[in-house]
Amino acid sequence: MLLITDPKMPLFFFDVQDGKSHSSDTEGTHYVGALEARADAVRMLVAMAQDEARGELPSKLSVTVSDESRRPVMEANIDCTIKVF
To answer: What does pTM read for this prediction?
Structure first.
């Protein structure tokens, strides 16, 4: 996916929480709209879940997407648990 950094496009920030730590996005990313930002939030969660599956479980993963005023516009979550029978 090609991201174009056009200052006229809306800016979104992605803050990540993995249950152990919190990481705030200080730069932001320009997207055509909220649907593209949402798709990237989901991609981030999937990648985080893959990493968590190799480590300590259970883990609650969260990505909060904020607009350029730093107002939250959406939150995506995954609860990572594995049950072995």
So the answer is: 0.81
3's tokens:
């991201």
Contact between residue 78 and residue 34 where contact means Cβ atoms under 8 Å apart? no
**Residues in contact with 37: Cβ distance below 8 Å, sequence separation at least 6, in sequence order:** 10, 12, 14, 29, 31, 65, 73, 74
Q: Which pLDDT tens digit goes with each residue over 24-68?
A: 999 999 999 999 999 999 999 999 888 877 776 678 899 999 999
Within a domain: 33? yes
Domain membership of residue 54 as a residue range: 11-80
Instruction: Count the domains in the chain.
Output: 1
